[in-house]
Write a structure and sequence with these properties.
The structure is a single chain. By secondary structure, this protein is mainly α. It folds into 2 domains: about 90 residues; about 45 residues, no CATH class. Helices cover about 65% and strands about 5% of the residues. Strands 1-2 form a two-stranded antiparallel ribbon. Strand 1 and strand 2 form a beta hairpin. Helix 1 packs antiparallel against helix 3. The chain is elongated, with a radius of gyration of 28 Å. The N terminus is likely disordered.
Amino acid sequence: MNHAVCLYEVSAVFGRFKIIKDKLLKKIVAFEVIAFLLIIMLFWFNELLDLPNKVLGAPVTPVNYAESILGTVAVLVLGIIVTHATHTLIKKIKFLEGIIPVCSFCKQIRVDQDWVNIDSYISDHSEADFSHSVCPSCSQKHYGVTLNSKESG
């Protein structure tokens, strides 16, 4: 396989993650904005049409603009806070992007001119933590004992 084609494919995959993340963010924020606008519309429909009277037969209540404006402001403030928090949290989602040069033998990663362990690199560039274990084939190779999946985990 041509290495240039392979590198292009890896780059294309990482590029798609960023596009997916951006599209997801836009959709979630759009749905939140629509939901909060629907809540505001319900406030006003209830106030202007007196829904409890029409639907449940409750006594007629006069229109109270101050209460509806206060409810609208409260929902708008809550909507801004929730939408901002969602935007911030989704932006914090990290993807390892780009081409990562890995040694074919020791699996260390080149960072500038230095070589670092893969677990150090991933820990420094993401929120992932590592827990080391021994796979069954390495257990056999290094210790002469084959562990099953439960023992090696």
